[in-house]
Every structure is written in structure tokens, then in C-alpha cells.
Design a protein that fits this description.
Layout (H helix, E strand, L loop, with lengths): L13 E4 L3 E3 H15 L4 E6 L3 H12 L3 E6 L4 H11 L3 E5 L3 H6 L1 E6 L2 E5 L12 E6 L9 E5 H14 L17 H11 L5 E2 L8 H10 L3 E4 L1 H9 L12 E4 L6 H14 L2 E7 L6 E5 L13 E2 L4 E5 L13 E6 L6 E3 L14 E10 L5 E6 L3 E4 L2 E4 H10 L4 E6 L2 E6 L4 H12 L4 E5 L21
Parallel strand pairs: 1-10, 3-4, 3-5, 4-8, 11-12, 12-13, 24-25
Antiparallel strand pairs: 1-2, 5-7, 6-7, 8-9, 9-18, 13-14, 14-15, 16-17, 17-19, 19-20, 21-22, 23-24
Helix pairs in contact: 1-2, 5-6
């Protein structure tokens, strides 16, 4: 199953706008030319930015049964070397100005600002017949651990997303997320299979040129992680005048209840459909979504399973939970569950290790109507003086009271990091609402995040 092999049917429709319009025919001609230079089913590293070169290369490799590894173009050279040593790619599709690659490798093909570099010691890869794509697990570009995705994973998920978001050929999404991130890539996949037009830009939502492009190209939709919505809130999105905008999507982490409620109301007033979604790279992208008409009624919910998927809960003894409002591990079943992980080139021939079932590592419950709510990560649970505490729930409580805080901790010690001098107020809330002892509060200048906007808890300053 490879839906990119049928993209010719969209013919002269515009596939991509990147400074100028490219029809589906034009995109495919370029994409196939890039892949043709590879010439065989093998492994290619793609150093991606939100530009036409990265997008066309990706489309070509998927169409031509070449397996791309999508990495951030800004990956540090030491990390890139480590990954090259571990996976031995045959080619690297990257910026022509990458000085390390220019010095070390021969050029096989050039298109636009990108070059197909041939690695000096190529290896014959034993690739599983269903393996289509490798993505990093969490945005840490230098990690050797990749998620192995099949053609069925990619396109079943794209079809499901296109169904519940009602994507059609008249949609025009704009790139707000890196394409090497599963959420950003799923936006590309789900729109291309519907013949839509993708507006490609590296500009961020904090730049005037991004919003000028939205107006000029009459963008209909974009997606964002919680950090994007925090920025939109600061930019006073409610005052924006973007009449073409029809849909907004949110995933990549839990949006605070306050912002979730606010964007639901703002979008309702503007006639925009706002979809909160839930997913993991291990499930290609999406596993659940909240229908937009339920936004105000089910604030904070990840919603229901995507079409073709199934959600359930399991207690710590492995028993299925059938009672509302009981916490358990969220289990997902569907055709989009990945084949498993890879940590070196020797894992690329492995069979499907998940068999369509993903243990998400998230704690959740469902309400009386069958709508699911995430209550925290299993790994984000600590015990303080015998009481099980969800760090995510403590963060949510403090955020609801207007405190910009994040939490980490170990058993018998809760650490609270705040951006303001609100130590006294935080202490009062923790003692009154949670009756907790054994917590410490520290002020920090900024919340450490990766380039996808996800919080890097491991980078928080340590208490002495």
C-alpha cells in the first residue's frame, strides 16, 4: 500500500507552494528524478527543513521504495557522524552548503539548494519488505533509536486523519512544524493523498512574513504543539483577521485546560473548527481526536479513537478496565502502529514486533460517554510519603491557578520550577489543595524545550 504512487491523478492541481506554485505533475517529475539517482531500494538520510527540496526528496523516496531516515537539517555534525556509523546510509539528501558533506562525499545529483551526496563506503542493507520510513522517537535528532514505519502505517493513518478532519483538495495547510517530526509529516501525508496544496515555509508564527503568506495564499489550516498555542495566545490570536482559516489542529502534548477552553471559544466565535488530537510517533502520528463540536463540553479530553483504531485501558495487573473514571494504561490497536524500533542497521530487517498493538505509557481514564482523558505518564508518577503523585496533574493544578510552572521529582521529593517570584502562592496551593510535604520550588529564567516545543525535563537545573 503506497498512496504516493497514485498522486499523478491530481495532475495540474497545485501540490506545493514554495515561493512559486508546483503542480502535482511538476512535483512528481522532480521527486522521481531525485529517487532515480539512488537507483535501488536502500537507506538514505534526509536532512530536512521546511523547503521544497526536502519535501520533493521525501515524496520521491517513498514512491520509489527507497527508505528515508528523516533528520533535522540542523543536526550537529558529531551526532550525524554517529548515526552514519551506526546505519551506513548509501546517500544523504541535504543542503548543498553542508560543508562536512561537501568535503567528505561525491555529489550524485543537485536540485535547487540540495545535493544527493553519495557515502564513500556504501553497504548493502537488508531491509524488511514493508519498511518504508525511519523517524526519531521524540525529536532528539542525535538518538540512534528510530521508529520503523511501514507503507501501511503511513497511508492508513493518513487516510484516517483525512477522514475525521474532512480534508479535501481545496484545503491549504501551511507548515508550522518540522517535517521530520511525525505530526508535521502527517499533515503533509494526509493532505497530499487528497490532492490539497501545501504552503511550505521555514518562517515561524512569530514572524510577520508567516502571516503575510497565510493571507496571500489563503491558507485554510495549520497545526501546532502546545508551545505554538502558547505563542498564539501571546500574539492575541483572537484579534487576527484570517477569513480563509477553517481548521486548526493541536497535538504533540497536552494543552492546558485554560488554553484549550480559550481556543475552543475563540475558534467557535471565528467559525474555525478546532481539533485536539493525541498521538505518538510509534503509531505513525494520530491515535485519537476530539470532534470540534465537543470542545467546550469535553475540555481537556483527547476524545475518541481515530477511524479504524481502538482505545482501551488496562490496570497494573493487565486486566481491561470497563468502568468510567478509573485510571489505567492507555492501549491502542490499529493498522498505524509501527513495526517496532531500530537501534542500528541490523534492526532494519526485523519483522513487525508490535502486531498492531501499542502500550502508550500514558495513564488515562474515560468518562461516562466514552471520551478519554490523559492523566499523566506512567514514568511521570512519583511517591511522596506513600502517596502516588502525578507530576502532570500537579502542573495542571498550578497552571489552572495562573502559575507558569513545570514539575519533576523522585520518590519522596517533588521539584517545582517557576518562571516568576510566586514561591509563597505556589507553596500555599500545594499545601491547601494537595496537603503535600517534601517539595521544593526553584525559579528558572526559561523552560527548556526542544525545537518541537516539547519540554526537556532532563535539562532542568538539579537541586543540590
Amino acid at each position: 500500500m503506497n498512496s504516493f504512487k497514485q498522486l499523478e491523478k491530481f495532475g495540474d492541481r497545485t501540490a506545493v507552494y514554495a515561493e512559486k506554485a508546483y503542480s502535482y505533475f511538476e512535483m512528481l517529475e522532480i521527486s522521481d528524478a531525485i529517487c532515480e539517482k539512488v537507483g535501488e531500494r536502500t537507506l538514505v538520510f534526509c536532512l530536512c527543513s521546511n523547503n521544497k527540496e526536502s519535501l520533493f526528496g521525501y515524496v520521491g523516496f517513498i514512491r520509489g521504495d527507497v527508505v528515508p531516515v528523516l533528520l533535522d537539517a540542523s543536526i550537529h555534525i558529531d551526532q550525524l557522524r554517529r548515526l552514519m556509523n551506526r546505519y551506513k546510509p548509501t546517500y544523504i539528501w541535504a543542503s548543498s552548503e553542508n560543508q562536512y558533506l561537501v568535503k567528505e562525499m561525491d555529489r550524485s545529483f543537485v536540485y535547487g539548494d540540495y545535493t544527493l551526496f553519495r557515502c564513500p563506503t556504501p553497504l548493502h542493507h537488508h531491509l524488511h519488505e514493508h519498511l518504508a520510513l525511519l523517524l526519531t522517537t521524540s525529536g532528539s535528532t542525535g538518538s540512534p533509536k528510530f521508529v520503523r514505519l511501514s507503507y501501511e502505517n503511513i497511508f492508513k493513518n493518513a487516510e484516517s486523519i483525512a477522514t475525521y478532519l474532512d480534508i479535501n483538495a481545496d484545503d491549504k495547510p501551511i507548515t508550522t512544524l518540522p517535517m521530520n517530526y511525525s505530526y508535521g509529516l502527517s499533515i503533509i501525508n494526509s493532505h497530499l493523498i487528497c490532492g490539497a496544496t501545501i504552503v511550505v515555509t521555514n518562517a515561524s508564527i512569530m514572524q510577520k512574513e508567516f502571516w503575510d503568506l497565510c493571507k496571500e495564499q489563503q491558507v485554510t489550516t495549520f497545526g501546532g504543539v502546545p508551545f505554538v498555542y502558547e505563542m498564539l495566545n501571546r500574539l492575541k490570536f483572537e484579534e487576527f483577521n484570517l477569513p480563509s482559516l477553517q481548521k486548526l489542529t493541536q497535538a504533540g502534548g497536552k494543552l492546558s485546560s485554560i488554553l484549550s477552553d480559550k481556543f475552543a471559544r475563540v475558534c467557535d466565535q471565528k467559525g474555525i473548527k478546532f481539533f485536539t488530537m493525541y498521538g505518538q510517533t510509534e503509531a505513525t502520528a494520530r491515535m485519537a481526536y476530539l470532534p470540534y463540536e465537543k470542545n467546550l463540553e469535553k475540555v481537556g479530553s483527547i476524545g475518541i479513537a481515530i477511524p479504524g483504531g481502538e482505545l482501551s485501558l488496562q490496570d497494573e495487573n493487565g486486566n481491561k478496565i470497563t468502568t468510567p473514571h478509573v485510571n489505567g494504561e492507555l492501549i491502542y490497536k490499529g493498522a498505524n502502529v509501527s513495526l517496532g524500533y531500530a537501534e542500528s542497521l541490523f534492526d532494519l530487517s526485523k519483522n513487525d514486533e508490535n502486531n498492531g498493538i501499542l502500550y502508550t505509557g500514558d495513564m488515562a481514564y474515560f468518562d461516562q460517554d466514552g471520551y478519554f482523558f490523559i492523566s499523566g505518564r506512567i514514568k511521570r508518577m512519583i511517591k511522596v510519603y506513600g502517596n502516588r503523585i502525578s507530576l502532570d496533574e500537579v502542573e495542571e493544578l498550578l497552571n489552572k491557578h495562573g502559575h507558569d510552572c513545570i514539575c519533576s521529582g523522585t520518590d519522596d521529593q517533588l521539584y517545582i520550577y517557576t518562571l516568576r517570584d510566586d514561591y509563597v502562592q505556589i507553596k500555599k496551593i500545594i499545601k491547601e489543595k494537595l496537603n503535600l510535604k517534601g517539595f521544593k520550588i526553584m525559579r528558572i529564567e526559561e523552560i527548556p524545550r526542544n525545537h518541537f516545543g516539547k519540554i526537556l525535563y532532563s535539562d532542568l537545573p538539579k537541586y543540590g
